[in-house]
Design a protein that fits this description.
By secondary structure, this protein is α+β, with helices and mostly antiparallel strands. Helix content is 42%, strand content 23%. The chain is rod-shaped. It starts with a strand and ends with a strand.
Length: 158
């Protein structure tokens, strides 16, 4: 870099010390911009991934709950058939996937009306409400309502 001085007047270039001390228009802190934009973009993406994962877990939970309830009906004795017990069995499957029993609704319909006669066809309809993750309990923000149906033959050999 060459410097030309004529009678104390610079010819278009500043002294290096003067350049460091002045506020350059392109001067800034890249780390602040990186962190700010990173947080601004990363947090919503992470929340979206967590929400999609929660819906996927809900789909596994509702299928498992209906299948477990259907299996319980197929092996249950006619005299021990109880709607509350079947709901509890399905709730355990939902709990395994991280959902509360109150989020699961279960409906059992039978061809004979009571599912007590051997060979009756039972249909289990499970419904699970998936809410947004990390939302307080007093706010109801459902992302999806998932359903699953299973049809089984109840107690054919009982």
């Amino acid at each position: 870099m060459q410097w030309s001085w004529t009678n104390g007047i610079s010819l278009g270039r500043k002294h290096p010390q003067a350049l460091e001390e002045s506020d350059h228009p392109d001067r800034g802190s890249a780390i602040v911009e990186f962190v700010a934009l990173g947080l601004l973009l990363l947090i919503p993406v992470i929340y979206l991934v967590v929400t999609v994962s929660r819906v996927q877990a809900g789909s596994f939970a509702v299928v498992a709950a209906s299948e477990q309830a259907g299996q319980a009906i197929s092996v249950m004795e006619a005299d021990s058939f109880n709607q509350a017990a079947i709901h509890d069995i399905a709730a355990v499957a939902a709990l395994d996937h991280g959902f509360d029993a109150q989020d699961l609704a279960l409906e059992v319909s039978c061809s004979d009306g009571s599912c007590t006669s051997p060979g009756a066809v039972a249909t289990v309809h499970a419904q699970l409400n998936v809410s947004l993750p990390a939302v307080p309990g007093f706010v109801t923000a459902n992302v999806a309502t998932l359903t699953s149906d299973v049809t089984v033959v109840s107690g054919r050999y009982a």
